[in-house]
């Protein structure tokens, strides 16, 4: 990743040396404190206090990944006065993903939506939101992901839609930008146009993170791309734009979305926000790890039990890219384990899991 950044940007010697130092520290050294005075310095000081001085190799995977991205941003000059202030170092990669053939195809495929029955359209937008999570640049950089799809290991679009009742606030905790965010906006549009949501809160990352994670400016970039596209994608983009203007969609970026901890440790203001939602939708692998706890749980641990701390109904839509998984049936686990594929980590399997089901689904 550091090599990609060095070749993507004309960074001067200071930034190049800071990135090389981060590479040395994170691959063989100890955790060093933050040296910047960015606005999130204070909150990070609390998250790193008991880790400073420890070898990186002894920190937890989730903690190390998050801190790595925070240090990387500081190393590129993101928080310092100067030419790189506020420059998203991953922007060229995200832009390439937004303008590639696979995203074009996804957007073109939306032209089929108006010809589908309401039930098929519901199913199609959920499937697109789930499988949109395959496009993830951090994962592509660290694996030989093939893009093959093998199917859902749990849940169904029907289970997802049965969470919704009277119109209410729906929160969507987004993951990657580009094609995945485009699919998420299609889902948001469906929630609003079918009256399942009276308004939607879209949660994105406050800063560039995990290469392709969506930030507020990515929301605008993807929306501009949609509105500049012909056909259904353009129509959806324009409706989403109007919903933003009307306050039916709000975009938020709480600092905790870049925190190195599980959602069970979320701060009170974020908990209160989720408690006010009729349904909260969590997208992607990292949000799933943080939602159920980034641990080697038995795969058959009930999903409801893993998220029992969460203050409301929720759905997780995720492609499996890491070993963490719960809520599977014993039969599913044994048949997947019998196969050759590393099904938990290959990015070829996905899931839809829900908790807090209404007693009489609409
Ligand atoms: O949250 P996403 O985008 O679905 O996936 C992110 C992710 O797969 O990328 C990292 C590197 O492979 C993993 O640690 C992490 O879970």
From TrEMBL:
An example molecular function term from Gene Ontology annotations: methyltransferase activity
Region (Disordered): 335-362
Stretches assigned to the Damage-control phosphatase ARMT1-like metal-binding domain: 16-333
Keywords, sorted A to Z: Hydrolase, Manganese, Metal-binding, Methyltransferase, Transferase
SUPFAM superfamilies xrefs: AF1104-like
Pfam family of the protein (one): ARMT1-like_dom
GO biological process, one term: methylation
Catalysis: reaction(s): beta-D-fructose 6-phosphate = dihydroxyacetone + D-glyceraldehyde 3-phosphate; beta-D-fructose 1-phosphate + H2O = D-fructose + phosphate
Record field: transmembrane: none
Positions with biased composition (Polar residues): 351-362
InterPro entries: ARMT-1-like_metal-bd_sf, ARMT1, ARMT1-like_metal-bd
Named cofactor requirement(s): Mn(2+)
Entry's family note: Belongs to the damage-control phosphatase family. Sugar phosphate phosphatase III subfamily.
Name used for this protein in its record: Protein-glutamate O-methyltransferase family protein
Naturally occurring in which organism (per UniProt): Saccharopolyspora terrae
